[in-house]
Design goal:
Blueprint lengths: L1 H15 L19 E4 L4 E6 L6 E3 L13 E3 L4 E4 L13 E3 L4 E4 L3 H6 L5 E3 L4 E5 L12 E3 L4 E5 L10 E3 L4 E5 L16 E3 L15 H15 L3 H42 L3 H4 L12 H15 L21 E2 L9 H6 L1 E7 L3 E7 L5 E7 L6 H12 L9 E6 L4 E6 L6 H6 L11 H21 L13 E3 L5 E3 L33 H17 L6 H5 L4 H10 L18 H14 L10 H18 L17
Parallel strand pairs: 2-4, 3-5, 4-6, 5-7, 6-8, 7-9, 8-10, 9-11, 10-12, 11-13, 13-14
Antiparallel strand pairs: 1-2, 15-19, 16-17, 17-18, 18-20, 19-20, 21-22
Helix pairs in contact: 4-6, 10-11, 10-15, 11-14, 14-15
Bound molecules: adenosine-5'-triphosphate.
Length: 637
């Protein structure tokens, strides 16, 4: 009955996950669950349509033995693997079995041949099924579709006498021998990619059978790939070598230049009184890459500091107002590097942002800092110093610490701690190839919480202080993947363009002038950031733009259509038992990205909601994925 059908569906759900995780299991009636169809008179589940819903793992035994009234089972285009469960043979009413596009392996179970006699459509294409194609298929006398292509079936083709057969394909398997007469009326495409012969193939069976033409073409193509170097590869090697040479020359050049600077700073500057402008005269910092640009930030920083009183002046305390030209360190800067260190630092461009260009500088002792050269500073010197002191005084574990700054007419530098894991944006959307750490639920929800804490701290730090530029490239990550917010406090120092495209996807609808942001606008941007974490999609995602909607509206419309799970990043759907927390975080994201500012929660409210859902998640012991840093001690939150 329906109760046992329901139980079977729940077992299926816990075995293969995917979008079945979003069935409203609190409902007693499974007939309303997405993809489930029932026959009301029978009071049984009769169809299960779960195409492309991220199911993975094996179909266990003991499920289909209970779903005995199934007429249609569609599990196509998922990531299911392993053998087919033999108890599917209990589904004697089965008409349609769509399993194409998975990773099933093993034989097509012998048991099915005697029981699934009503099969009309059978599609096993695009899996790893192996073994021989049995004459047992002749039992499926009602069969109209038999698709077996792109598997590992081997042996010869049996003499299939299926009177109703309309669609047939066994291409790209490991079959050999001749095409039996009964199947010869099918098009040639149905047989390609095997070692078959006879009509409709060009290869006649009386001549050599070993290398039929269709296959030989394929093989030579493969061989070419394996043994020879393609034109692209050769071009790559040539270009690579030339690039290598250029880099080598550049390095030599930089080395020579560096020596020259060192001399300048230690001996010549005092005597000849070079101005900053002169040293900085060679500002090539257009952000067009690393390498030679790297030298210049060191030069810039060097110039900035050699004009300060003495190296000894860099210790601790806040800049003494009167001596303008010096690198000013903020309080509790425990790791203070000295002038010489920074002079010798090699540097590379990290990227160009709204406020200027960021560099990574590696000090000789191995310490790394990020140096930001601000452009378009619109405020006066005294206002700058006052505001940057305010920024430097902010101290929270979820903010990127601002260690020092330098101000001169020509140059404004900010020195931050370097964040080794880069930005959330790079981690989420950077190359998705091998070697990349997938961000599991534990890490993502921790990043969400950390970012929330950081923003909440900013908001509570002074009267109506806001960040103004919350986005994933401003969420940097520590070694243990803890979130650190950067770029705080800069919106008020620098003339922002009135139409900043870069933040467009994150900007609250009511913000028309990006210089006039509010805390509620930060909450909106934070909501978009949460959506980015959950969907894995960048707010400036090309697809979304083609559809002409932003990320919040795309998510809202998808959720409204009850395809909630469709919004989640596939990477997240791998974890079991965390779906409720994911849905809760999604709800918070949607609340934060509400159209009207008054409908959005405060940052404090958002923080406590994330704390709560994470607490529940930890209590329930959801499989949220392992921590990528095994040495990390879990914070007790
Ligand atoms: N302290 C840091 N440690 C490591 N990487 C950093 C640091 N600060 C910035 N970056 C990286 O340098 C790049 C440029 O940063 P920057 O803040 O200048 O621009 P942005 O974040 O892309 O844009 P915006 O200026 O609008 O915030 C980004 O990829 C950012 O992740």
């Amino acid at each position: 009955d329906l109760t046992s059908d329901r139980a079977a569906l729940l077992s299926l759900r816990s075995a293969v996950g995917g979008r079945t995780l979003f069935w409203t299991t609190t409902q007693q009636n499974p007939c309303n669950w997405a993809g489930v169809q029932c026959d009301n008179t029978l009071n049984r589940v009769t169809a299960l349509h779960l195409p492309g819903v991220s199911l993975s793992g094996q179909l266990p035994l003991g499920i289909f033995g209970n779903l005995t009234n199934l007429r249609t089972l569609s599990l196509r285009f998922n990531a299911l693997s392993g053998p087919l469960p033999t108890d599917l043979s209990s589904c004697v009413d089965l008409r349609n079995l769509y399993l194409q596009g998975n990773r099933f392996s093993g034989d097509f179970p012998e048991k099915y041949f005697s029981s699934l006699r009503d099969l009309v459509r059978l599609n096993l294409a695009g899996n790893n099924f192996s073994g021989e194609i049995s004459t047992g298929f002749n039992n499926f006398t009602r069969l109209r579709t038999l698709y077996l292509e792109n598997n590992q079936f081997s042996g010869s083709l049996p003499d299939l006498k299926l009177p109703k057969l309309e669609q047939f394909n066994v291409s790209f398997n490991n079959l050999n021998g001749s095409v039996p007469k009964t199947l010869q009326s099918n098009p040639i495409e149905s047989f390609l990619g095997n070692s078959l012969c006879g009509s409709p193939l060009d290869q006649s069976c009386s001549t050599k059978q070993d290398v039929p033409p269709a296959v030989s073409v394929d093989l030579t193509r493969n061989r070419k790939k394996k043994n020879g170097l393609s034109g692209g590869a050769i071009a790559g090697i040539v270009i690579g070598s030339v690039l290598g040479l250029v880099v080598l020359l550049l390095l030599l050049f930089i080395l020579c230049r560096k020596r020259a600077t060192k001399k300048t700073s230690s001996v010549d500057i005092g005597a000849t009184k070079l101005t900053d402008a002169e040293v900085l005269g060679e500002k090539p910092l257009t952000g067009s890459g690393t390498g030679s640009n790297g030298f210049s930030v060191a030069a810039a920083a060097a110039a900035a500091m050699t004009t300060s009183s003495t190296a000894g002046g860099n210790t601790g305390g806040v800049g003494d107002g009167t001596s303008n030209k010096k690198l000013v360190f903020f309080r509790n800067s425990s790791t203070i590097f000295d002038l010489e260190d920074l002079l010798r630092a090699s540097a590379e461009v990290l990227g160009k942002g709204t406020f200027g260009t960021a560099y990574k500088a590696v000090l000789e002792a191995g310490m790394m800092v990020a140096v930001k050269r601000l452009k378009d500073v619109t405020v006066s010197e005294s206002e700058f110093r006052e505001k940057i002191e305010f920024v430097g005084a902010m101290d929270h574990e979820n903010l990127v610490p601002l260690r020092a700054y330098y101000y001169s007419k020509e140059e404004k530098l900010l020195v931050y701690d370097y964040m080794p894991m880069g930005s959330l944006s790079a981690l989420l959307h950077g190359n998705k190839g091998g070697g990349r750490t997938p961000l599991n639920w534990e890490i993502r929800s921790r990043i969400a919480l950390g970012a929330a804490h950081g923003i909440e701290y900013l908001h509570s730090h002074g009267h109506n202080v806001s960040h103004g530029n919350i986005k994933s490239s401003n969420i940097l990550l520590s070694k243990s993947y803890d979130a650190r917010i950067s770029d705080f406090g800069l919106a008020h120092l620098v003339g922002l363009p009135s139409t900043p495209n870069r933040v467009a996807g994150y900007r609250a609808p009511e913000v028309t002038d990006p210089r006039r942001v509010s805390q509620k606008a930060d909450v909106y941007s934070f909501g978009v950031l949460l959506l980015e974490l959950l969907t894995g999609k960048a707010p400036t995602h090309a697809l979304l733009n083609e559809e002409g909607v932003d990320l919040p509206r795309w998510v809202q419309s998808t959720v409204k259509e009850e395809w909630t799970s469709e919004v989640f990043d596939l990477e997240l759907l791998r974890y079991q038992n965390v779906e409720e927390e994911m849905v809760q975080l999604l709800q918070l994201a949607i609340d934060c990205a509400a159209q009207y500012p008054d409908n959005r929660p405060t940052m404090a409210e958002a923080t406590s909601r994330i704390e709560e859902l994470r607490r529940v998640s930890l209590l329930r012991g959801g499989d949220s994925g392992s921590n990528p840093d095994p040495d990390r001690v879990h914070e007790s939150d």
